[in-house]
């Protein structure tokens, strides 16, 4: 009987070992999956991040501060980044060693005009797209003085490495503090927030600034007040100046990140620059639009949802671009995966290509409207030299920034809307011909019979 009972005991012990091995393997795989999912895209800086909030706001400021929900998978488009300390050292050396890094520069047109951007004709604007002859001066704004204080101007010129820029004009957003910053990042990255008089009054109303000094600081952000008296009547157009002419406002910076005021950055900017620009060897990184691929799709949505008040002017803009050669996106445009970006987050290496692109795009927005997505492909496709562009997936965008609605609850000064819709149309080309864009539309809809 002893011999008969020893075999089942041995069998049971092997079964127990296999069971334990299976259990531990399952636990290990589950733990690995849970940890690796946080590394699938971006994480906050893993080594010595800033743990405490950078600034505490009063409860009355920005009561409507709810984020837009996202439902996309966080692992469908993996992007990895290197160790924080390695990235910090690399960018420090790269930005600091000016003797080894000769940064090409554009020559900018000077002069005094009634318009900040010069208001050039269509033919004149497009003529600057060909920049193979580097000695040509390019129109790039500042034909009128940018109205900021001398102390702010000096501080901007001293920013000689990385700058993060945002703007609030019209007091329709809350100033949001960046999260996930490495402990040394505030020493090497400048954060500048441009605001107008109306926004300044709102900050004063909530006791976020002191009027006893002309230099304002809220958390990580240095606040720069811009007088709107000598700029554009439209606050959105004034916001375009720091968004696309950042290389002129910060002439000594090597990299910049534009962050729309509706976003909260949740990843260290040095990691973003390294992963999306340096590693990819591009001039600029920007998210592709989550829904649209063709410029005309964005234009029709702009008219349908009244994102711009003058629908007739939108039609004129699109017909101007079609007449000048704008084509819908196709595989022939690769490596560009789309014609429509989500321009809420822009990461740039300051150089000839990205600076020229920014200048040309700004000129188009002054000519028509501040909807930068409408002119994006038109400018990009005409440029020579070509822009090296990383249009990353929207899943990446959703992992590096939290998006909020433009719904800051007004508790202070009232902001009045000057613009009114001239023609509320659900179709950009309703009740009128669109002969100049007919070929574009047929190609976009797959009805063109051209060979």
List descriptors.
alpha/beta; TOD1/MUCI70 glycosyltransferase-like domain-containing protein; two-stranded parallel ribbon; globular; eight-stranded mixed sheet; TOD1_MUCI70_glycTrfase_dom; 12 strands; single chain; 451 residues
Descriptive notes:
InterPro entries: TOD1_MUCI70 (IPR006852), TOD1_MUCI70_glycTrfase_dom (IPR048354). Residues 112-406 form the TOD1/MUCI70 glycosyltransferase-like domain. This is TOD1/MUCI70 glycosyltransferase-like domain-containing protein. This protein is of the alpha/beta class. It has a domain at 84-293 and 329-420. Helix content is 36%, strand content 12%. The chain contains 15 helices and twelve strands. The strands form three sheets. An eight-stranded mixed β-sheet has the order 5-6-4-3-7-10-9-11, with helices on both faces. The chain has a two-stranded parallel ribbon with strand order 1-2. A hairpin with a 2-residue loop joins strand 5 (216-218) and strand 6 (221-225). Helix 7 runs antiparallel to helix 12, helix 10 packs antiparallel against helix 13 and helix 12 (352-367) packs across helix 13 (372-382). It starts with a helix and ends in a 7-residue tail after the last helix. The model is unreliable at 31-40 and 413-426 (pLDDT under 50).
């Amino acid at each position: 009987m002893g011999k008969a009972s020893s075999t089942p005991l041995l069998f049971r012990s092997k079964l127990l070992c296999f069971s334990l091995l299976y259990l531990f393997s399952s636990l290990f795989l589950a733990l690995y999956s849970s940890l690796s999912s946080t590394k699938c895209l971006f994480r906050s800086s893993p080594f010595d991040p800033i743990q405490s909030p950078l600034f505490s706001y009063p409860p009355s400021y920005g009561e409507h501060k709810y984020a837009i929900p996202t439902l996309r998978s966080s692992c469908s488009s993996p992007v990895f980044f290197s160790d924080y300390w390695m990235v910090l050292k690399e960018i420090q050396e790269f930005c600091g060693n000016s003797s080894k890094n000769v940064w090409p520069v554009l020559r900018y047109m000077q002069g005094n005009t009634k318009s900040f951007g010069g208001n050039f004709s269509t033919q004149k604007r497009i003529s600057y797209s060909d920049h193979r002859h580097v000695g040509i001066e390019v129109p790039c704004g500042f034909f009128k003085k940018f109205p900021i204080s001398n102390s702010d101007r000096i501080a901007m010129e001293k920013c000689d490495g990385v700058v993060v820029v945002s703007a609030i004009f019209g007091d329709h957003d809350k100033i949001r503090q960046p999260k996930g910053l490495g402990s040394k990042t505030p020493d090497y990255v400048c954060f500048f927030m441009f605001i107008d008089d109306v926004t300044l009054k709102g900050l004063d109303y909530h006791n976020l600034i002191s009027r006893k000094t002309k230099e304002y600081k809220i958390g990580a952000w240095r606040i720069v007040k811009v007088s709107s008296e000598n700029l554009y009547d439209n606050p959105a157009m004034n916001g375009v100046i720091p968004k696309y002419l950042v290389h002129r406002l910060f002439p000594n910076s090597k990299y910049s990140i534009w962050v729309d005021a509706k976003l909260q950055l949740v990843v260290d900017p040095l990691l973003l620059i390294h992963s999306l620009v340096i590693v990819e060897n591009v001039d600029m990184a920007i998210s592709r639009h989550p829904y649209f691929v063709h410029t005309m799709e964005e234009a029709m949505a702009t008219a349908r949802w009244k994102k711009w008040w003058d629908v007739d002017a939108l039609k004129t803009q699109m017909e101007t671009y079609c007449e000048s050669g704008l084509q819908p996106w196709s595989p022939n445009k690769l490596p560009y995966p789309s014609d429509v970006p989500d321009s809420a987050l822009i990461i740039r290496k300051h150089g000839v290509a990205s600076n020229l692109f920014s200048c040309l795009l700004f000129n188009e927005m002054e000519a028509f409207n501040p909807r930068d997505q409408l002119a994006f492909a038109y400018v990009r496709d005409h440029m020579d030299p070509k822009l090296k562009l990383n249009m990353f997936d929207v899943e990446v965008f959703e992992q590096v920034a939290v998006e909020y609605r433009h719904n800051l609850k007004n508790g202070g000064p009232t902001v009045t809307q000057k613009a009114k819709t001239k023609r509320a149309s659900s179709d950009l080309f309703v009740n009128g011909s669109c002969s100049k864009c007919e070929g574009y539309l047929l190609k976009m809809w797959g009805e063109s019979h051209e060979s």
